[in-house]
Amino acid sequence: MHKNIYNNIVVIGGNASGLAAASQARRINPDMDITVLESGKYISYGTCGLPYYISGYVKRVEDLLSYPKDFFEEKRKIKILTGHRVVGIGSARKELLVNIAGTSEHKIINYDKLIISSGASTIVPDIPGINSSNVFQLRNVEDALKLKDYIDKNNPKKAVIIGGGQIGMLMAEAFNKLGMNTSLIEMKKRILGGFEYEISTILSRKAEMENITVLTDTAVSSINNSSISIENEEGKKNIDCDLILLATGISANTGFLSDTSIELGKNNAIKVDNKLQTSHMNIYACGDC
Questions:
Q1: For residues 42 and 70, what is the distance between their CA atoms, to the nearest angstrom?
Q2: pLDDT digits (tens, 9 = 90+) for 12-29
Q3: Is there a common fold for 8-121+251-285 and 124-246?
Q4: 8-121+251-285: CATH class
Q5: CA angle 131, 289, 162 (to 5 degrees)
Q6: Would you call 136 helix, strand, or coil by DSSP?
Q7: Neighbours of 256 (CB within 10 A)
Q8: pLDDT digit string (tens) for 149-184?
Q9: pLDDT tens digits, 201-230
Q10: CATH ID of 124-246, from 3.50.50.60, 3.40.50.2300, 3.40.630.30, 3.30.450.20
Q11: Helices within the chain (DSSP H only)
């Protein structure tokens, strides 16, 4: 990256990968303008830390944040704009169309280099009852606050987690610590399918030793406010529950690229080369997107 050619870097997304990229750019060039656009209220946290707030191990949501906004603005001279959602990209003109949270106002922000780190959202399966009031997701701080508020107000005793990946397993541990009778439902033949078989087996046994019910090769057929219906080789049955968490995989937050020719891959993730450059020059991508 040449100091005198590219004077304005914009990063879409204010969490782990986006802020790491912005910070590295600042180390390389202490004089360039760097702006981070974050659609939410919070920055500088990792999704994997959210279960520890739910369990009570982390007491305050602020303790999830690696650094506050002021740190980046004052110490690293990186401009942080929260509540700024990118809704479109004009790559030929090197400009972004940005919506200001809580308003119908839009503004144009220009860039020389663009880094997309827009994160991902939970894939919501097409299951009857999926929009019930006791069904939650966990991808950001706002999700964690909603879930924590529900738990504090309703004191659920039985929880079901749909999905046996990393977040699903962490949340099973969190619910179990809170004293809930916890069941984890995985449609594949084993949990943590992205890991070696040995690791998956060890953690499955550990969960069961802690009285977490793990059901693999099992599909959820419907949801209501007090139970879920499941199907597996043993047949159909209902599991009573007060709380349901979706940990059903993720899809990249790249809807704002729909009017561009930036190439996407599986689950709307952005295709990049070995330098993390997208199919467009001067546009890069990192993180969950």
A1: 12
A2: 999 989 999 999 999 999
A3: yes
A4: alpha beta
A5: 35
A6: strand
A7: 20
A8: 999 999 999 999 999 999 999 999 999 999 999 999
A9: 999 999 999 999 999 999 999 998 899 999
A10: 3.50.50.60
A11: 16-28, 50-55, 69-70, 141-154, 166-177, 197-209
